[in-house]
Amino acid sequence: MENWLIKQAELAPYRPALVYEGRTWNFRQLKTKVHKIAGKLTHFIGKSVKRAGIIADNTPASYFMILAFQQLGVQPVLLNCRLAFSELERQREDAEVLVVFVDDLLKKRFEQRVKSNTHYYFISELDSITSDSPVIIQSFEDDKIASIMYTSGTTGHPHGVLQTFRNHFFSAVGSVFNLGLQIDDQWLCAVPIFHISGLSIMMRSLIYGTGVILVPHFDPVKITKLLAFKHVSLMSVVPIMLKQLLELYPTEGYNESFRTFLLGGAPIDAATLGSCQKKGISVIQSYGMTETCSQVVALNFADAPSKIGSVGKPLFPVQLRINTGKIGEIEVKAPNLVKGYLNDQAGFNDKLTQDGWFRTGDIGNFDKEGFLFIKGRKDEMFISGGENVFPNEVENVYAKVAGIKEIAVIGIPDKRWGQVPYAFVELQDHSKLDAASLKLYGREKLAHYKVPQAFITVDKLPRTANGKLKHSAVREQFSKVIAKLNKEN
């Protein structure tokens, strides 16, 4: 394939490519800016570097840097700025990266680390560097690595995922066949660009020739104003973001160009869906992962009322199957499935079946019409009295309860039943927890063994960068409480 950035600069030179805080770069300007940075990088890191790290934030500087690495054929290793420095160092060492650039917006947090560590530099340090003539990659070979990012690690040790240009291209193809495309589309990006949800927006922009409105972070008030008054066509959200936006939905609605929210992270609950329907807001639910370069399944808004809890049907050209029986592990085969894990090809191969399907680790089932329902993670499931309990299923039921902002369910050892569910609850402002009422509610909606034995109020539940609950971190963060519960049981 031709170099996507160069191609769009030729096809649509004056079309908006990136908008940030009132400033706009068209595709020609974006190419010029990125190639200038590529020249500075060539002078700074040399021409033989295979990969380099970036601790990115949602800024033009990070945006340009990621693209500059790709233009040079250097593999960008996208590191999560929210990780502890020891975690970042483990990933840097695993990726064998000798140079890491840190976004200057993160200077307050990383200043001492950058000063004391020879591997780390702020992006602004390139400002004083003379720009060499960079050797720009003229074509993106299908199997060349376009990006490396580490899995969120919701349940275990993160892996460095090797994402190729082919993977990103077919991810974009599947998305556009589902969502459609308007020549003046602009995708509002409030999700982190170091995560696949944000990076995939960047890649789609280059493939489609459409614009990205980048914001530094999710601010529901600011986002609502953008949706109402600016030319925004689409926006990626997770459930907690969507719920906050619904609370601020303006009486006059969003701008006339707005088409839909693309919802990831978890299925939409009935209450939120009902609110969207009343307001006439289109929401497309989706399911995907880092290993598939974003979504592989999506549910159109028209099907949502009759398929509450489903994430939809496989996108073109994705194949899905359930490995055993009616309910089992979801397996996927698709051209956007990555080629492996960095320094752990054996670990990736262990997730492949003998006939080449990838075991996702998610448990689900198809209904008679082929809609996929996610039960939860295979390694989050626990057994209570011989029955399988999927935390995700229980959490979705309680998400509809007024006053509950977020809920995480885990299994606690029990002498009689093996394990029993306990819930950690993050409440809305000024709400109070009534455990007795919550148990009664659960018994009306769930089998008795799925109803949490206790509801424990916490200030904040741990989440990944894209808003997903980190069940493993729930155990770590509230280990003392859990240890006491284990002892009591």
TrEMBL record:
GO terms for molecular function: ATP binding; medium-chain fatty acid-CoA ligase activity; o-succinylbenzoate-CoA ligase activity. It is an enzyme of class 6 (ligase). Its EC number is 6.2.1.26. Pathway: Quinol/quinone metabolism; menaquinone biosynthesis; Quinol/quinone metabolism; 1,4-dihydroxy-2-naphthoate biosynthesis; 1,4-dihydroxy-2-naphthoate from chorismate: step 5/7. InterPro entries: AMP-bd_C, AMP-bd_C_sf, AMP-dep_synth/lig_dom, ANL_N_sf, MenE. GO terms for biological process: fatty acid metabolic process; menaquinone biosynthetic process. Residues 7-342 form the AMP-dependent synthetase/ligase domain. Converts 2-succinylbenzoate (OSB) to 2-succinylbenzoyl-CoA (OSB-CoA). This is 2-succinylbenzoate--CoA ligase.
